[in-house]
Amino acid sequence: NFLYTSKDESSELKAIDFGLSDFVRPDERLNDIVGSAYYVAPEVLHRSYSTEADVWSIGVIAYILLCGSRPFWARTESGIFRAVLKADPGFDEAPWPSLSSEAKDFVQRLLNKDPRKRISAAQALSHPWIRNYNDVKVPLDILIFKLMKTYMRSSSLRKAALRALSKTLTADELYYLREQFALLEPSKNGSISLENINKALKKYATDAMKESRITDFLSSLSSLQYRRMDFEEFCAAALSVHQLEALDRWEQHARCAYELFEKDGNRAIVIEELAS
Q: Can you identify the CATH homologous superfamily of domain 142-275?
């Protein structure tokens, strides 16, 4: 449901009615099928979902606002559910060819059927199509803590691969990471510690993040208690490979990362190169 904030022609349009909303922990999964059929994410129908499902619904809204039609349609609710699970939203019919590539990319990244590859709400606010036309304040993102938790538990080889991948990111792709790193208030030498993360959570955590017990996640970052992390390592730690795989540029990213390992031109990575 939507309402205008006033009767003025330039009035803002706001989504309302959050009666089915709930606070969830970063690692919590929900299983009830709720919501309007046209806006339900695929993983909701599979009865295992989290906050990524909300981003999908925003994608449906954005699609409708831009082209005037629904991305998934059928005459019955069961037909709509099948379309959500099986069909791809169309971007070939008018007016999509006349819309900007940034607008199309924004909606496509919101409507990725794989929740791991779908961008988060904070990433959506960092997208060029949004930030180039609006003065948006990007919030601290729960996603970076999930990714950092996985990174801290990874092998040295995986960490090295993530470092190589992070060095292939474009300026637009780095924007979100720079914003998140800045929110952690690094020291003058440009590094962060567990203390920085603690302070940032107390200062910037939303009510939803507090209700979801995000601070419980800090125990998984305990190794930062004895060392610091610079921006280069942060990019590797907070990088989502699943999201990179969803980009048209994925092969280019992967090839460039491979070449950072491969030094002699023989296309064979040796142990010494990985160690360096």
A: EF-hand (1.10.238.10)
Tokens found for residue 88: 């791809």
- The lowest-confidence range among 12-16, 78-82, 148-152, 264-268 is 264-268
Calculate the CA 133 to chain-centre distance: 20
Helix axis angle, 250-261 relative to 156-166, nearest 10°?
A: 120
- 229 - beta bridge partners? 192
For range 84-89, the mean pLDDT: 97
CATH 1.10.510.10 placement within the chain:
2-116
163 with 237: CB under 8 angstroms? no
Number of neighbours of residue 30 by Cβ within 10 angstroms: 16
From the CB of residue 91, how many other CB atoms can be counted at a distance below 10 Å? 15
What are 252's two structure tokens? Answer: 């280019």
pLDDT digits (tens, 9 = 90+) for 107-122: 999 999 999 999 999 9
Q: Does residue 47 come out as left (phi exceeding 0), alpha (psi in the -120 to 50 range) or beta?
A: left
Helices 52-67 and 101-110 sit at what angle, rounded to 10 degrees? 140
Portions of the chain given CATH number 1.10.238.10 = 142-275
Q: What's the pLDDT score for residue 203?
A: 86
Regarding the domain with residue range 2-116, which homologous superfamily does it belong to in the CATH classification? Transferase(Phosphotransferase) domain 1 (1.10.510.10)
